[in-house]
């Protein structure tokens, strides 16, 4: 993704009355992309003056997504969702994604998906590793199947958006 194709306002160009605290919220599976793609993307965005939120490693050690992160999502104008092979194996990522979809509907958040070495059709149709992860989630969350349904719907919705497709060629 080159920086010209992602034109976001720098923090200096935003008005003080703007409701957005962050220009971009990054949603990603740390194990898959933190030290590769996500670090490079984060660094580039920050160098361009784009106020970007990326969780630190300590946040992922908890089992439930913190209310602080959910609040940060609400305060972000854009969400870049980096959909990697194991993204949906993380309930943390799925909770973020569901919140991002809610913010798209309620606040007009713009979602920019990055298909990180996964096929967009696998994301939309929840095939391959995505299907396997949901089988596990349905087993683990029998008592909260509505959460699993919400995650599935959020993943389908983000999979239908135009985004960037990184792949080996």
TrEMBL record:
Keywords: NAD. It comes from the Eukaryota. It holds the Pfam family TIR. One of its GO terms (biological process) is signal transduction. InterPro entries: TIR_dom, Toll_tir_struct_dom_sf. The keyword NAD applies. Residues 20-169 form the TIR domain. This is TIR domain-containing protein. It comes from Quercus rubra (Northern red oak).
């Amino acid at each position: 993704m080159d920086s010209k194709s992602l034109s976001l306002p720098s923090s200096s160009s935003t008005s003080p009355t703007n409701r957005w605290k962050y220009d971009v919220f990054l949603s990603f599976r740390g194990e898959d992309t933190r030290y590769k793609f996500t670090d490079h993307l984060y660094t580039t965005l920050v160098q361009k003056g784009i106020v970007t939120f990326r969780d630190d490693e300590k946040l992922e050690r908890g089992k439930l997504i913190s209310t602080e992160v959910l609040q940060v999502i609400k305060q972000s104008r854009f969400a870049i969702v980096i959909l990697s092979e194991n993204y949906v194996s993380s309930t943390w990522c799925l909770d973020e994604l569901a919140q991002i979809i809610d913010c798209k509907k309620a606040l007009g958040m713009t979602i920019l998906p990055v298909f990180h070495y996964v096929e967009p059709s696998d994301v939309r149709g929840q095939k391959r590793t995505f299907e396997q992860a949901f089988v596990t989630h349905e087993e683990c969350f029998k008592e909260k199947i509505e959460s699993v349904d919400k995650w599935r719907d959020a993943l389908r919705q983000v999979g239908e958006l135009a985004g960037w497709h990184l792949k080996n060629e």
